[in-house]
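Hello again,

I reread your note about wanting to compare the complex against the isolated chains. To keep things tidy I'm splitting this into two emails, and this first one only covers the full assembly. Below are the input lines as submitted, including protein chains and any nucleic acid or small-molecule components. They are followed by the predicted structure of everything together. The single-chain runs will come separately.
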Amino acid sequence: MQRIGVFVCWCGSNIAGTVDVKAVAEALKNEPGVVHSANYQYMCSQAGQELIKDAIKEHKLTGIVVCSCSPRMHEGTFRKTAEAAGLNPYMVEIANIREQCSWIHKDIAEGTEKAIVLGRTAIAKVNLNAPLMAGESPVTKRALVIGGGIAGIQTALDIADAGFEVDIVETKPTIGGKMAQLDKTFPTLDCAACILTPKMVDVAQHEKIKIYSYSEVVDVRGFVGNFEVTIKKRARFVKEDICTGCGLCTEKCPQKKVPNEFNLGMDNRRAIYIPFAQAVPKVATIDPNYCTMLKTGKCGVCAKVCTANAIDYTQKDEFIDQKYGAIVAATGFNPISMEKFDEFAYSQSKDVITSLEFERLMNAAGPTAGKLVRPSDGKHPQKIVFVQCVGSRCAACAEKGKEYCSKICCMYTAKHAMLTRDKYPDTDVTVFYIDVRTPGKNFDEFYRRAAEEYGVHYIKGMVGKISPEGDKLMVRASDLLANKQINMEADLVVLAAAIEPDKSARPLATMLTASMDTNDFFTEAHPKLRPVESPTAGVFLSGCCQGPKDIPETVSQAGAAAAKVIGLLAKDKLKGNPCVAHSDEMMCNGCSSCEKVCPYGAITYEDKEFRGPNRTTLIRRIAKVNEAICQGCGCCTVACPSGAMDLKGFASKQIMAEVDAICK
Amino acid sequence: MEKSKENLIQDVVRRSGVNPRKCMKCGKCSGTCPAYDEMEYHPHQFVYMIETGDIEPLLKSKSIYKCLTCFACVDRCPRGVEPAKLIESIRLSVIREQGNNHLTPQMIPELIDEEMPQQALVTAFRKYTK
Amino acid sequence: MQVNEFKPKIVAFCCNWCSYAGADLAGSNRLAYPAEVKVIRVPCSCRVNPMFILRAFQRGADGVIICGCHPGDCHYTSGNYYTRRRMALLFSMLDYLGIEKGRTRVEWVSAAEGAKFAQTMNDFVQTVTALGENKRLEDLRCKK
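Full-complex prediction:
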């Protein structure tokens, strides 16, 4: 039998004004288990807490009920008080007689009556409370960053600078991501490579960072602080540690007709290649889909020319198991396919390109060495049309494109238009827009400069149709402000394609049991207050995998994610929430119902031996809750058909006792 | 019996199945319309004017007959608003008020010739009958 | 005259993260709702076992309302989706047993919707009061 102390707070006149606190304390005295009842002006004050501590010691209380404000306010305070007096903190229950009683009722009789019922309910619960101990688990002091774009790079650098080991897993042969493909960056117009490549070198040289390039995560087990990850290191048929990156092989390889994905297929590379000059790691990779040696066994030119003997045609995929304390998803984005937007003639004309292709065309290291020419005939374009919101802001019912605003297109289109006019003043540049969205530091000024100083024509209205006519493109659009239809000729059309999360994000989210929204962006733990954490403990989000972002925002989010990771890795032990699910192994029949509803993957099964009748042993499959992963939602308790699963701190018996007390 | 303006707009909207509030005013419908120059009011204006309750000018306008019902605007609208259906609905409410059909099934055989696409006939029948 | 004095017993299950905070907000803003509503705090609306609701009706409750985060906003990502499905089934079964649909309700109240909480409770109490005392499932043995 519990020995319960009841403490009724006046909260000045906040509670005492509409609840007769003395009557409440008096009425609750006779409830089962109650051995002490007191009232005081401010229970949360130092004096009030002392009162509770003294009572715990004096009356040897095993549980206390505080009738006061909301538990969301002072549950923590009173738990600490109880703990200081030697009582288990989870033997404290709060009856909310302020927010949910005194503040909403005006009649004293009514308020007092309700307060008594609420107090009685809390007492009924405490009678069934059991001391709970928060479990502890160790933390592996190593972080995994999945994705080696600017988001991943920044997160890795920040974590590594704090002194923790970091591994970066990147699917491409080099880190750098999309930013490496960009020409200049808004709103300052500094070149992307100039600010990115030093960071890439920092990563390569950092003693705490290890890069797994040309690799992917294939399996994630474990939980916060104790993840076990399998990384598949794909065979690149070049010994990474020996290759010097001299690039001789990439010049001699006879297979010249491989579309260069770094330049979005606008030129060709060899079957053995280094994506770009500043690649990190600067190591050649053989593309097995095109290499003659790997396909037919007849060639071997690269092996002959390699002075370092780094070529190894027999290399196999390698699987590496590694333990991590935290995982950061930084899988990034891709422009959407233009397949469903036939009206823009992307598939019909080479001169209709996407903005990322335009970046490569303008880039000094791109397929044209930075000269803006029409991809079809290499001629200089005179009239250039930019179309914004291609595939962004589309209603779901229209069944193409994305519902969200891709956020970065307005700014990069202004940048493209400005750069074009700056480099080629003879060109005529028109931007068709629906809205120009420029919320960011110096963003609107930048856009206005494009229009005012660089003479870019901004027309409010969407392009309806683009049709190739001869070597020109006919653009039909509406000018909403002039209320007329425009039919104009253009030499080059640039589509601001919407961006979508990388395809690898969805399977990764499944592995991490991290949740995603309908667009396959990772969901954050709280949209405002915990924007860089996934609801799954130990998984953090960085960059565009959480939502469309520009570079400054990505870098700040990457830093924030790193700070959260450092905060986690700095701890030696993790203290869990003790209010977690628990399965009674005698009742569990291993049916898997609970496992299916668990949003965190906290439930696993194991075969356990039980003693059967007549000295036999039975092996039964039973559910096991990992207390470090369980967040204590209690969904499994309801799914369990045998009633084996229960939630500590909110046990079925406790809640039913509360129901009984209310209905009495 | 004369309907009040609100009722008329409600009728038009309900019959078309179009929600003009979904429009984000990008103008792609008008940007794509092949009959644009023939029309006094353009597809995006139809949607906007119905949304703001300004239906009388549309009822009187010739534009409702100029729409080809080619559905280019329906196909390309990023918000799935379907302006052509709205225009057709306005046209229907005018024709229904006028009382008689402009085309009867009996007249169709004489209209058919080799060149005419089947769809044009169907469209015309929809346009000129109640 | 009896009907007017009838005060229903209402059990409200509120999830800790949204609806309980919403109820607190209603209190902070001094938005009145009837004292017949008594709130039980649960971590998530999906913690509410249909058994609890049956128990409440058995013990003489006249109405049971479950409040959770809005769909898609669940603190535990998907809990309220389970609540929605489970309660749809349970409520139709209760209806079959003679517990009118008006006596049971699932409502989404976010932490910012104090006014919605108060209004929902006012409305619910009114509905249940109009339905009168629940005698269908009440176990008379539970009465003294």
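For quick reference: The CA atoms of residues 59 and 143 of chain C lie 8 Å apart.

B.
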